[in-house]
Amino acid sequence: MDRKEELTSRRERIRERRRKIKEAHEAALVILETEDQVVEPPQINGKLRSFALRVPTQIRKCSGIVIFGRRIRSLVFTTDLATIRNVDADAVLAVYPYTPQQIITEALIHSADIPIFAGVGGGLTQGKRVVNLATFAEMQGASGVVVNAPTKNEVIQELTDTIDIPIIVTAFSAEGIRERVESGAAIINVAAGAQTPEVVAEIRKQFPELPIIATGGPTDESLERTIAAGANAIVWTPPTPGEVFKEIMTAYRNGEAHP
């Protein structure tokens, strides 16, 4: 295949990727319109499972992103299996600060009862290893892969050519998003700290239909601002097991029942 044919083939793949993104966005809007007409469903909880982590209710205001027929509004940011099995988030953002390992991804996918979006590197881990890890993650059942902000567009393009699950690209600013999308990014994950709402708003201005997930921040106000800025889904950081235990042990020391 010569250079011209390769460029033509790449453009066709990008157009197909954009078509799928548009279809997913339209499906999310249809579900949102339908849910607005339906009464709140009844809640059923067991005695032992009534004590669990609950994501902020404000996240229900998000449109969500429909991925393989499942609507994702909330993603819990953790790799702790006990947390994953005891949280009502729609999915897991399984990103951690070490080099991604296949065995960790496999353990998370096999243990979770909600979709896993697996981190496959892009910072310390680069190049072909990222592509290999993403391939393994897809084969193991991941619903998508997440790459860090330093990931090169050439790697994103290779991921696009290799796997058929969404590629989520982390961004700290609105700069260079067009190149990310053209390389095959299906979803942008905004993690810009206190500036997240502003970055989300700028990206949304440039790309009205681009799926965006974003960190909600530490307060209800920051969460509301991020949703209002145009985030389709929110990443929520849960309390650590140590923090949860602290509350439980305090109650036990005082001779009180918990929960």
Topology:
Layout (H helix, E strand, L loop, with lengths): L2 H33 L29 E3 L2 E3 L1 E4 L3 H4 L6 E4 L7 H10 L4 E4 L8 H13 L3 E4 L5 H10 L4 E5 L5 H7 L3 E4 L5 H11 L5 E4 L4 H10 L3 E4 L4 H13 L6
Parallel strand pairs: 3-4, 3-10, 4-5, 5-6, 6-7, 7-8, 8-9, 9-10
Antiparallel strand pairs: 1-2
Helix pairs in contact: 3-4, 4-5, 5-6, 7-8
Report on the structure:
With 259 residues, the protein is an alpha/beta fold. It has one domain: TIM Barrel (Alpha-Beta Barrel), CATH 3.20.20. It has helices at residues 3-35, 81-84, 102-111, 128-140, 153-162, 177-183, 196-206, 220-229, 241-253; strands spanning 65-67, 70-72, 74-77, 91-94, 116-119, 144-147, 167-171, 187-190, 212-215, 233-236. The chain has an 8-stranded parallel barrel, surrounded by 6 helices. Strands 1-2 form a two-stranded antiparallel ribbon. The termini are far apart.
- At the first level of CATH, the class is Alpha Beta
**How many helices?**
9
* Amino-to-carboxy terminus distance: 65 Å
Average pLDDT works out at 89
Content-based structural category: alpha/beta
Low-confidence stretches: none
Radius of gyration from the CA trace? 19 Å
Count of structural domains: 1
CATH topology: TIM Barrel
Content of β-strand: 15-25%
**How many beta-strand segments?**
10
CATH homologous superfamily annotation: Phosphoenolpyruvate-binding domains
The CATH architecture is: Alpha-Beta Barrel
